[in-house]
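I am still getting used to backbone structure tokens and would like to learn alongside you. To get us started, please write out a protein record for me. Once you have written the record down, we can walk along the chain together.
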Amino acid sequence: MPAVCIRLHCITGTLHYACAVYIQVLSVTASVCTSTVIAIDRYLVVTQPLKPRASRRVRLVAIWVVVVALSSVQLAVGRSNSVEVRSRPTHV
């Protein structure tokens, strides 16, 4: 996958590359958060069956707010053009 991303970066430009990576991070984060909310919901249904729960719409909106907030960092990081790598001095 990294070779494909580097090639995509060279052909289509920095903005397109940043958007593609952002969408990838957004999708993975949404999947993980959704699975987590489903697991928590199932746990609560088993342990507290009579307690009222939040509506499906509220949970969905909450998931997407968290997902967009966590993934928005990638937009700022993905648009940077240079990466500085410092090597440690080797002492013998």
About this structure: DSSP finds three helices and no strands in the chain.
